[in-house]
């Protein structure tokens, strides 16, 4: 079974490539290496190309003849998307459209999409079900919501079969320390905390301590990247078995506050690093937690690593021994 993975040299994509390779899939990774790392591709072949290049995509699809495409290639920094929305609509939406058009042209009709909880904006209901209104509050979330709408239309018009996976907070790393989170710049909480523990940063900032949560800090649903990768495998098998196009949340259904994550990191690392309290950032909801019951019931997803300490331990192991 051949699977083409765009953005497979990035954080989540590389963990999915690892999972595919370990399960015996034949994998081809397409990545322009603007954000990805060739060292992160543990299985299959890497083609350095841009998903917006239709000519290159035609040649790759003709050469590899995949049964399915998994699409991870995207920019993910919310703050940057607000400052430079054009960059996000071009990369995340327009280039995905080029990929989908080329797939339709070449007769490849199974597609797994890397989406985000950011499509919900400020949700009315928590835990958030997939039926919650899609109402993003930043260009990053909107760029992904646009693709979800395109997928729905392409499914009706061209017979494209897709699963859109709305990630909550992916975290952690490969337990063997081969791959992990490596963003430039880094914007995610857990790696920023661990860089502080390593002494690469002077302190970690808490943005807002007056939220309506038990300790006043934001609560997020952190999902280990290997459990997230398993959700992609199940989504692929679901489509290959004839499943209808659908959307699924990917999270554990409960969250941890910023202070809880910091306290866990201090226990795991044994370092009492400096913590600063700062004002709220605009657009940060108090609580973002997934209702993932649909993923569990429809795809039989059974998470194995629902443990914040394990998540932080694998991320810390990666930080201490990182290869790229």
Question: What features would you describe in this structure?
Answer:
This protein has 324 residues and is of the alpha/beta class. The chain folds into 2 domains: 2-171 and 222-250, 3-Layer(aba) Sandwich (Rossmann fold), CATH 3.40.50.720; 189-220 and 253-321, Alpha-Beta Complex (UDP-galactose 4-epimerase, domain 1). The protein contains 10 helices and 14 strands. It has helices at 11-22, 54-64, 78-83, 85-106, 139-158, 189-198, 225-240, 258-269, 293-299, 308-321; strands at residues 2-6, 26-31, 45-48, 68-71, 110-116, 161-167, 169-171, 204-207, 219-220, 222-224, 246-250, 256-257, 275-278, 287-288. It has a 7-stranded parallel β-sheet with strand order 3-2-1-4-5-6-11, sandwiched between helices. A 3-stranded mixed β-sheet has the order 12-9-14. Strands 7-10 form a two-stranded parallel sheet. Strand 5, helix 5 and strand 6 (161-167) form a beta-alpha-beta unit. Helix 2 crosses helix 4, helix 6 (189-198) runs parallel beside helix 8 and helix 6 packs across helix 10. The protein is globular and about 55 Å long. It starts with a strand and ends with a helix. The relative contact order is 0.15.
Mean pLDDT: 97
Name the CATH superfamily classification of the largest domain: NAD(P)-binding Rossmann-like Domain
The proportion of residues forming helix, as a percent range, comes to: 40-55%
Shape: globular
Q: In this structure, how is the largest beta sheet organized?
A: 7 strands, parallel
- Roughly what fraction of the amino acids lie in strands? 15-25%
Counting DSSP H or I runs of 4 or more residues, the number of helices is 10
Number of strands: 14
**Succession of helices and strands:** EHEEHEHHEHEEHEEEHEEHEEHH
* Unreliable residue runs: none
Name of the level-1 CATH class of the largest domain? Alpha Beta
Radius of gyration: 19 Å
